[in-house]
């Protein structure tokens, strides 16, 4: 039985868009209300197309995602480009992240910066929050190839494509919040699932982590569904109904960027007639090599590619109060034995303490000098008779 050869993305149809004004701390200043009206956003299947009317005949400058001004693959350079200018922002790289909304939609968001100079960052630069909302896939599995007219085939042809998601949670359970900004070594939980049903199960293969810049990636799960490096990411654990796979791991990143993107292949299997017997996989050495020789695409009705991303900061960044996680912040506030002081006040306190210590040293030295001087004056003023001496015992008169 042959399956669908194409990889079907979980989020396909877009529904609404939103563009917001953005200002950074120093460089991006000025009123952006007028310019935001001249931006058009088109949400496409693999990218977000941003069209900007610069109110001039031509534009010379650069557009890049925030914090990626040095990356040529994400930065677009314009040299006397005719107005309007178009910038394409990929959905799965260049700091574009996604989040699942309560209404079942997926929102992709990023911040782009427009600088009217090709080499310098000036106060004329402007930034914008870009957002696109997508509906999750709801199409029917009707194009199964080379299917026989069995009850199993009829079941597939009338079944909806299950909604598929990849979510990464902070902590070791799914009860925590979805991870968006974490530190190296923080515990994370990846959950890949399809909506619970009686027709399909899932099988996870070919997981990797990418830098989102096209410079590097690292394989995590092989085509047999087995872990490649247990110290980076271990083995997925599957639920009893074979619709959910969970794995715990610690946050990691590439040395040159804070963005990391995870992607996996989800192979659908038919629960009928023991079609999901390979879930979970047997990763013993012999059976693993035997399974690598098989083609899962021929066994699976469809293959879905899921992905998710997050920001991972260096451990040293945790000293920044704005980047401290909420739990640490609450612990500091609740502990009565903790005293918080700003760096500026701490430096002033150290300077004052040093000045006081210096004054005490000078005063002590002056007191010692005064005591020595007093001793010297007392010794020189002592009265010892040195006049003419007459010993009457030996006196002689003539």
TrEMBL record:
Domain ZP stretches: 42-290
Signal peptide: 1-19
Alphabetical keyword list: Cell membrane, Cuticle, Membrane, Signal, Transmembrane, Transmembrane helix
Family matches, as Pfam families: CUT_C (PF25301), CUT_N (PF25057)
GO cellular component, one term: plasma membrane
Location(s) in or outside the cell: Cell membrane
An annotated Gene Ontology molecular function: structural constituent of cuticle
Bilayer topology annotation: Single-pass type I membrane protein
Spans traversing the lipid bilayer: 346-369
InterPro entries with a match to the protein in the record: CUT_C, CUT_N, Cuticlin, ZP-C_dom, ZP_dom
Alphabetized SMART domains for the sequence: ZP
Protein name: Cuticlin-1
Gene: cut-1_2
């Amino acid at each position: 039985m042959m399956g669908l050869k194409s990889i079907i993305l979980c989020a396909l149809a877009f529904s609404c868009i939103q563009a917001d004004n953005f200002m950074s701390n120093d460089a991006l200043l000025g009123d952006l209300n007028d310019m935001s009206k001249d931006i058009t956003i088109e949400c496409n299947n693999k990218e977000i197309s941003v069209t900007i009317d610069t109110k001039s005949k031509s534009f010379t400058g650069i557009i890049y995602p925030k914090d990626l001004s040095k990356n040529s693959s994400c930065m677009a350079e314009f040299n006397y480009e005719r107005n309007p200018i178009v910038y394409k922002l990929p959905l799965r790289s260049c700091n574009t992240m996604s989040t699942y909304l309560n209404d079942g939609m997926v929102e992709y968001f990023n911040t782009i910066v427009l600088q009217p100079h090709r080499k310098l960052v000036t106060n004329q630069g402007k930034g914008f929050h870009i957002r696109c909302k997508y509906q999750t896939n709801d199409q029917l599995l009707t194009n199964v190839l080379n299917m026989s007219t069995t009850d199993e085939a009829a079941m597939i042809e009338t079944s909806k494509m299950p909604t598929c998601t990849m979510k990464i949670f902070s902590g070791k359970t799914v009860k925590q919040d979805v991870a968006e900004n974490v530190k190296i070594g923080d515990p994370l939980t990846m959950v890949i699932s399809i909506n619970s049903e009686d027709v399909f199960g899932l099988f996870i293969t070919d997981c990797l982590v990418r830098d989102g810049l096209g410079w590097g990636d690292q394989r995590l799960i092989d085509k047999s569904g087995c872990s490649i490096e247990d110290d980076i990411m271990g083995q997925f654990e599957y639920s009893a109904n074979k619709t959910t796979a969970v794995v715990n791991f610690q946050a990691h990143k590439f040395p040159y960027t804070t963005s990391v993107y995870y992607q996996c292949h989800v192979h659908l299997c038919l629960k009928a007639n023991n079609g999901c017997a390979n879930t979970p996989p047997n990763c013993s050495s012999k059976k693993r090599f035997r399974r690598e020789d098989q083609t899962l695409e021929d066994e699976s009705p469809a293959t879905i590619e899921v992905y998710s991303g997050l920001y991972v900061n260096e451990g040293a960044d945790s000293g920044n109060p704005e980047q401290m996680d909420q739990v640490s912040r609450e612990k500091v506030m609740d502990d009565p034995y903790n005293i918080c002081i700003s760096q500026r006040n701490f430096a002033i306190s150290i300077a004052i303490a040093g000045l006081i210590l210096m004054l005490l040293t000078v005063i002590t030295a002056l007191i010692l000098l005064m005591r020595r001087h007093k001793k010297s004056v007392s010794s020189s003023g002592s009265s010892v008779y040195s006049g003419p001496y007459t010993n009457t015992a030996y006196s002689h008169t003539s």
